Amino acid sequence: MTGRKITVPSSASESVLELSILGGLRSKSVNASYGLARLDCFGWGIRLRSSARWLRWLLPTWEARYDELVKAQLITVPIGNRGVRFQPADGTSPIIFWTFKGSSILDQLEAHGVTVNRNVTRLRQTGGLRQQL
């Protein structure tokens, strides 16, 4: 996975951690099982990162300001995983955060003006989930 780092605002009000959830992650190049990734929501946007320091070389940090997210959508795959798919506005590939707390994440994003889709979209497992990202 290629990391995506942004300039994070330094104001104290925007640096407050509003929500932190342990989960998994899927990008075009990385699939991290549940418990190996963490989603942090701040006043400025979101940060997806490794939940353990020793995994940071494998799972680089991915950040986006709320205004850089085109859409966040609930998704599921046939094996029972649920998550939230984030689509950045810059045309880079979407990223999936695996969690059963998707509604809480969408509530947080919606409060910051992100367009959310609460209808669960089922992604195909066959043919490669990677191709659907």
Q: How is this structure best described in words?
A:
The chain starts with 16 loop residues before the first strand and ends in an 11-residue tail after the last strand. It has one helix at 102-111; strands at 17-26, 31-42, 45-50, 62-65, 69-76, 82-88, 95-98, 116-122. The chain has 1 helix and 8 strands; from the N terminus they run βββββββαβ. An 8-stranded mixed β-sheet has the order 4-3-2-1-7-6-5-8, with helices on one face. The mean pLDDT is 85. It has one domain (19-132): Roll (PH-domain like). It is mostly beta strands and 133 residues long.
Based on the model shown, name its key terms:
single chain; 8-stranded mixed β-sheet; mainly beta; 1 helix; PH-domain like
Blueprint of the fold:
Layout (H helix, E strand, L loop, with lengths): L16 E10 L4 E12 L2 E6 L11 E4 L3 E8 L5 E7 L6 E4 L3 H10 L4 E7 L11
Parallel strand pairs: 5-8
Antiparallel strand pairs: 1-2, 1-7, 2-3, 3-4, 5-6, 6-7
The separation of the N and C termini measures 12 Å
Order of helix and strand elements from N to C terminus: EEEEEEEHE
> Strand order across the biggest sheet?
4-3-2-1-7-6-5-8
Task: Outline the biggest β-sheet.
Answer: 8 strands, mixed
Number of E-state strands: 8
Full CATH superfamily name:
Pleckstrin-homology domain (PH domain)/Phosphotyrosine-binding domain (PTB)
What would you report as the Rg, rounded to the nearest angstrom?
Answer: 14 Å
How much helical structure, as a percent, in the residues? Answer: under 10%
Average pLDDT metric: 85
CATH architectural designation? Roll
Number of domains as seen in the coordinates: 1
Residues in β-strands, percent: 35-45%
- Detail the poorly predicted runs: none
CATH class type: Mainly Beta
Number of helices: 1
Strand-pairing-aware structural class: mainly beta
Q: What would the CATH topology be?
A: PH-domain like
